[in-house]
Amino acid sequence: MIILFGVFLLALLVITALAIVRSESLFAAVILTGIFSLLMAANFFLLDAADVALTEAAIGAGISTVLFLGALALTGEHERGIATNRLLALGVVSITTLLVIYATFDKPRLGDPDAPVQQHVGPWYLEKTAELIDIPNAVTAVLGSFRGYDTLGEVFVVFTAGIGVLFLLSARTGWRPEDIEGVHAPEQGLRHYLVPRVVGRMLIPFIFLFGLYVQFHGDYGPGGGFQAGAIVASSVILYALLEGEKRALEALPMRVLQWLVAGGALLYGAVGVAGMLLGGNFLDYSVLASDPIAGQHIGIILIELGVGITVTGVLLCVFHAFAARGKV
Amino acid sequence: MTMAIDILSWIMLTAGGIFVFIGGLGALRMPNLYTRMHAASLTDTIAAVLILGGIMLQAGTTLATIKLAAILLFLLLTSPTASNALASAAILSGLQPEEGPIKPREDDA
Amino acid sequence: MELLGLVYYWVFAILLMIGFYAVIAKPNLIKKLIGLSIFQAAVFLLYITMGKIDGGTAPILQDGVTLYSNPLPQVLILTAIVVGISTTALGLGIVVRINEEYGSIEEHEIQERDRQ
User: Which of A71, A84, A303, B58 could serve as a FRET partner for A221 with CA atoms 20 to 30 Å apart?
Assistant: First the structure.
């Protein structure tokens, strides 16, 4: 019954996607992408994926919109020119759509408990989480402990993207606050606008607190390092928007952010190496404490902390790379 | 007693839904940006209060009610601020509010 | 009920191809990146749809619930969302640099300036 609501959300998704592709103003397209991500997050929640919905809302609807707007401020806002191969593209796209729709008739029906994907590994993880790791959130248990090696790779992907953007965009800007000056200095940020400034400054510590709550409650409910990193980063981005880029770089200088980026990945790797030094395998948490289950708890909290720190650092580095660029 | 709470929450949820519909209708039919924002702000304030209040009544006295109250407080703080920022941005980019009798929109037949 | 589940897969196909059309047919670089993110979101929808079980709840173990949805696709997609934003950030950095060097982010203008 609730799936009918999901179908309604899917219709809205298709309409929004069509509007995104057809709109000529890039600004409107970016805002519509934020709405698209939010509708997708609602759909994920209806499909019982609470962690994924939180991540998609925080990262897709929140941070991704800010990054696109930051890039739009440095390039043009309107799309010029039309494509020369539209008919060919439409033809290829229609044929592929029909092929994929034809292929979906062979899929197991939605929600079938006997589908092949629900056998073997999924139920095994659900059983063994209660037995071996003893935390309520099975997704965090799988992410942090059973598939911890994949999450290590993911932290390094985020780290690589951060240093990639820093390589690309830091040749010209100075990162020191003294380098950001000029005509915009007296009017930086939203300092003249009373309502956003007062409400924003009141809300920033609560957003930060909520980010910390999501970080440390990842074991007991939806949450974890990735969502928490995005929420904490968005609180600092709110401060940068309100007070101006110069003050934001004075509050959290780039060197601190670079330490955060490297420190989180180092923490993750250190937990893995500590497992080796204490007698187990790499990323084996059971040897971190006298009781294997307590060791798993310690390991998961430490690596989620590492993930959160790296994601915060990278998202803020990327934001400052875009925001501080036009000012010099 | 639970029957009365059930009926009250049903009334609140339905009224909230009606206000959302009115807000959406206004956002489509109003002539310019400022009047459209004014109509859309209905969904942020009164509809949010009614819908979240109805859900809080359904949740009873559990932790979920306190979380819903926190969400409602956050919504009531941020949505009017966002409308204010949007209106400031519109004035900054030169769109002045119109005065005088309502002119029909150009895209109406 | 079977048709209902199929609607999810059809919407996956439609969103996939809308995003793909934006990548191949729109000359603006940022529009291509937006289309790529729509493409990624459609793939996420497919995986999460496959993980749902009728009558299950979110895979957070609690007393009194016996049937949970599959946690494994959700772990995979959580990773994929973060990787997606990382590649989008890097792509936007490249677009900003292209704009500074070539003066435009439209494909044909960049190719023309390249030929000179």
Answer: B58
Q: Shortest CB distance from C50 goes to which of A90, A96, A117? A: A117
Q: How do residues C35-86 score in pLDDT, each as one tens digit?
A: 999 999 999 999 999 888 888 888 888 888 888 888 999 999 999 999 999 9
- Residue A88 inside a domain? The answer is no
Closest chain A residue to the Cα of C81, Cα to Cα: A56
- Using a CB–CB cutoff of 8 Å, tell me whether A308 touches chain B: no
Residue A66 lies in a domain: yes
Q: How many Å apart are CA C4 and CA A101, to the nearest integer?
A: 14
Q: Domain range for residue C44?
A: 2-115
Which member of A196, A202, A203 has the closest CB to residue B84? A196
Tell me whether A149 touches chain B (CB under 8 Å).
Answer: no
Place of tokens 């929140």: A62
For residue C46, list its beta bridge partners.
none
For residue C74, the domain's CATH number is 1.10.287.3510
Q: Are both A151 and A220 inside the same structural domain?
A: yes
Write the CB contacts of A131 (distance below 8 Å, at least 6 apart in sequence).
Answer: none
**Residue carrying the six token digits 């959700």:** C74
Domain that includes residue A175, residue range: 135-328
A203 CB neighbours in chain B (<8 A) are: 74, 77-78
- The total number of structural domains in chain A stands at 2
Residue C80's region, left for phi above 0, alpha for psi from -120 to 50, else beta, is alpha
Interface of B with A in 36-95 (CB under 8 A): 74, 77-78, 81, 84-85, 88
**What is d(CA A152, CA B22) in angstroms, rounded to the nearest whole number?**
49
DSSP code of A105?
Answer: G
Would an 8 Å CB–CB cutoff place C59 in contact with chain A? yes
| Alpha carbon of residue A309 to chain centroid | 12
Domain limit, last residue, from A80, A100, A122: A80
Choose among C11, C60, C104: nearest Cβ to A13.
C11
Q: Are residues A159 and A279 in the same domain?
A: yes
Which of A48, A65, A80 terminates a domain? The answer is A80
Helix extents (H) in chain A: 2-22, 26-46, 50-55, 64-74, 86-103, 121-128, 138-141, 148-169, 194-216, 225-243, 245-251, 254-277, 292-323
> A71 and A172 share a domain?
no
Q: Could you report the predicted ipTM of this complex, rounded to two decimals?
A: 0.94
**What percentage of residues in chain A have a pLDDT greater than 90?**
53
Are A112 and C54 an interchain contact pair (Cβ–Cβ within 8 Å)?
A: yes
Whether residue C73 contacts residue C47, with contact meaning beta carbons closer than 8 Å, is answered with yes
- The yes-or-no verdict on residue A250 having pLDDT over 50 is yes
